[in-house]
Design goal:
Elements lengths: L1 E6 L2 E4 L4 E9 L4 E9 L6 E6 L5 E3 L7 E6 L4 E6 L8 E9 L5 E3 L3 E6 L1
Parallel strand pairs: 2-11
Antiparallel strand pairs: 1-3, 3-8, 4-5, 4-9, 5-6, 7-8, 9-10, 9-11
Length: about 120
């Protein structure tokens, strides 16, 4: 089992910045990929960014150039630096951890990010 605890959400004005953190605990040695997904009201959950244990990253098209994902393997914590925030970035952001070689997905409880115009 893996537990994920997110922090760092909140309210920010358009153009502002926020940094999200997600700390993993439990069977952390099985974790390969970690990442962030988001879900806005009435919409499907979508990819924000992922990062593998080796540091390979992947970003959703809507956040490329504005968001940066990073990871501290010693602390098994993943970060999401969000710059130039837009009202359309408003959503609940969920941390995800994927294990390997047996693929199991774990999710955090979500943290609200609200960007005012």
């Amino acid at each position: 089992q893996v537990q994920l605890v997110e922090s760092g959400g909140g309210l920010v004005q358009s153009g502002g910045s926020l940094r999200l953190s997600c700390a993993a605990s439990g069977n952390i040695f099985s974790i390969n990929e970690m990442g962030w997904y988001r879900q806005a009201p009435g919409k499907q959950r979508e990819l924000v960014a992922t990062i593998t244990r080796g540091g390979s990253t992947n970003y959703g098209d809507s956040v490329k150039g504005r968001f940066t994902i990073s990871r501290d393997n010693a602390k098994m914590t993943v970060y999401l630096q969000m710059n130039s925030l837009k009202p359309e970035d408003t959503a609940v952001y969920f941390c995800n951890a994927e294990t390997a070689p047996i693929r199991i997905d774990y999710w955090g409880q979500g943290t609200q990010v609200t960007v005012s115009s």
